[in-house]
User: Fold these one by one.
Assistant:
Number 1:
Amino acid sequence: EAGVTQFPSHSVIEKGQTVTLRCDPISGHDNLYWYRRVMGKEIKFLLHFVKESKQDESGMPNNRFLAERTGGTYSTLKVQPAELEDSGVYFCASSQDSRYTGELFFGEGSRLTVL
Amino acid sequence: AQSVAQPEDQVNVAEGNPLTVKCTYSVSGNPYLFWYVQYPNRGLQFLLKYITGDNLVKGSYGFEAEFNKSQTSFHLKKPSALVSDSALYFCAVRDSGSGNTPLVFGKGTRLSVIA
């Protein structure tokens, strides 16, 4: 069974440019989460999809971030325009269990560097 | 609000010695507690969790953790460390009574096991 896959693994862009990160969850997992880790800091929650619906987007930093999950399969996270403080590792995770007692399955992360 | 503290950025231990990675938490209700591990260039992997029941929880790769309600702690332990245990360890918590709130992570502790 394929795990959670994320693309690209690393992206280097200049301030003001746009970047789109993609996440393919484990097949059959309705729950999809985006998290971000700035170097040396906590892994912070961004948002949670259940199928194609946003269950919780309380962690999204501002309106420069747009997440979508059309059709309830893969998800994209777009940052437009990117700022220096957006640099970090963006993790995607999925789960079948929506009761919040189950484990999350994480991708390897997309490292974003904004210059 | 939920929070997790991992007081040590780095833990060094000799191979064969016992190891402890510390975690304390703060929630208003009862906690669901998790440990995840991140090996180099990999995504986070689930190690173990405490939901209810026995305070001593056993997980993958010989790791265990003890839930201590009075000290609000959930320290990760292993009786005999291996060099292959060297990785980044994250503690996470969710308040069981707060509905569908997301998992809150600590900032991580880097474990280095020296041969």
Note: The mean pLDDT of chain A is 93.
Number 2:
Amino acid sequence: GAGVSQTPSNKVTEKGKYVELRCDPISGHTALYWYRQSLGQGPEFLIYFQGTGAADDSGLPNDRFFAVRPEGSVSTLKIQRTERGDSAVYLCASSKRQGAWANTGELFFGEGSRLTVL
Amino acid sequence: AQRVTQPEKLLSVFKGAPVELKCNYSYSGSPELFWYVQYSRQRLQLLLRHISRESIKGFTADLNKGETSFHLKKPFAQEEDSAMYYCALGTGNQFYFGTGTSLTVIP
């Protein structure tokens, strides 16, 4: 597709349930990022993939959160035993890495998945 | 620790007036600074980056390492500039975002 695609756009679940959020990046973009945005806050870094591997997962808040990118394209963010505090918009972004200066590359964001935990 | 501070949550200006959105950062290394914008019902997108030294939609931003600032400026605000603006710091693998400033341009 032309841009970063995220599904579902909205997810309502009950406390304690398991949730998966999917991100389909722009074709050819090797870098993929997950962010979480709570109301009134800026995007908060969760995890960064370069290809298939998680190059930096230091932003994952606890072991209930996990993300995979098995073929270096689509990524899935998995949240176990959801809590009300997990309610937020989860943003995915992809970027074309540019040699050693990875961050001179522009981040292309999806529209986000809004998660509501009741 | 890396940090991006945007002190103004809300900013209102009249059409045609100058606008400045403030951003300060904290980083021990060589920073890469960006401004991202989110218009109503659209996704977050890049507005400009400091290394390009470009003007986009009339906006400019100068990196001041002495004051650790990267303020966004436009001499004459337009109604279509109303949006949410985020300052971002790029370091290694991560982009750190500020909490954002909501700009409203009053006709």
Note: Chain A has a mean pLDDT of 91.
